[in-house]
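Why do we bother with a discrete structure alphabet at all? Because it lets us treat a fold like text: something you can write down, compare, and reason about line by line. To make this less abstract, here is a complete entry for Oxysterol-binding protein. Read it the way you would read a sentence in a foreign language you are learning: slowly, and without expecting to understand everything at once.
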Amino acid sequence: MSETPQEVGEAVPAAQKSSWASFLKSIASVSGDLSSLTAPPFILSPISLTEFPAYWCERPELFAAIADATTDEDRSVAVLKWFISTLKGQYTSRNEKLGSEKKPLNPVLGELFYGYWPDLNGRGRTNLVVEQVSHHPPITAYYISNASKGLYLQGHNAQKTSFSGGSIIVKQLGHATLTVDLPNGDKEEFLITLPRLRIDGLWYGSPYIELTENSFIQSSTGWLSTIEYKGKGYFSGKSHTFKAILSPPGSNNAKRTFEGLWHLTSKDLKSGHTFTDVQGPKEEVNVAIVEEMDDWESRKLWQHVAKGIRDGDFETASREKSKIENEQRQRRKDELAAGTKWELKHFEHIESDPTYERLGRFFKANPPTEDTYIYRHNGPYDEVPVVAAA
């Protein structure tokens, strides 16, 4: 008998405890990357990893506000404020909605996700194009643009997972570059690196994410934000704590310091004022209805799997998921036999990103070089004129 939708929110439904125990044993037995492991259906999220770049802009007014800053320092503060405000959606939203952290659906190569946030109150329209550019390892490339504000975010994200000390350790690979068109015709660039993750609570059947170590936001003007993440048992004793230091060009000294809880509120220590507050509602991305989507778009591709997960019908979810995965395996076999290679639709892969190398030197980025995926400007919204509201 299937669980009801209400029961799906429980960390481990009673009927699935033996399956969860087996999953934990399989995790503990793997010494390398965990990405190839198959998670039990009840721990799956009904959302594909290809949708995750939408979390970058679920507060589009903060993204648009970057363009309104008038000094180099103020732009770096605005970028930091926007970035911190994206973390709640990216790393705690499934925990809050579903009772515990859920594993996103592992996208197939070529999977697509398109969306936008409309122009409201003069903030401009923000468009999103996402493509799954690799399956093993899973790599997601994305491009977010607000042309009327002169803001362009390009990036990619991959995960390398391992098991240590009772937790799943996730090293996020990839980076993002934000380009800002300035009123004088110049451009300012920001290199954004990604935090590491630690998934705790496994043995209790209630997984949740903590961010760990440091990430950086480096401006081409020299301003650098260094963000330190801590969890329970460190300097605050609270989960989801961060401290961000903004230092001016050529200096390691803090000009501004911000700290608090990235999933609730934080303060500007200089002024004492609230810096970020993400307790209010976020703004979901707008997408086409499923019937009008291309077969490769996430919500159409995974629609039957997602429905099974949401309904607690894990048998259907597992069957439909296996069908998609088997089709993908056969597609790869056919390509291998024919000597062909899957062609990316919206992005071009380059081995070394010159922007990452140039800006990464400021803070001695590790690794010193990274590959990237360049957007081809051929997405569904590229022909749509974007006009700011009066």
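What the structure line is telling us, in plain words: The domain at 32-37+48-277 is CATH 2.40.160.120 (Porin). The chain has a mean pLDDT of 86.
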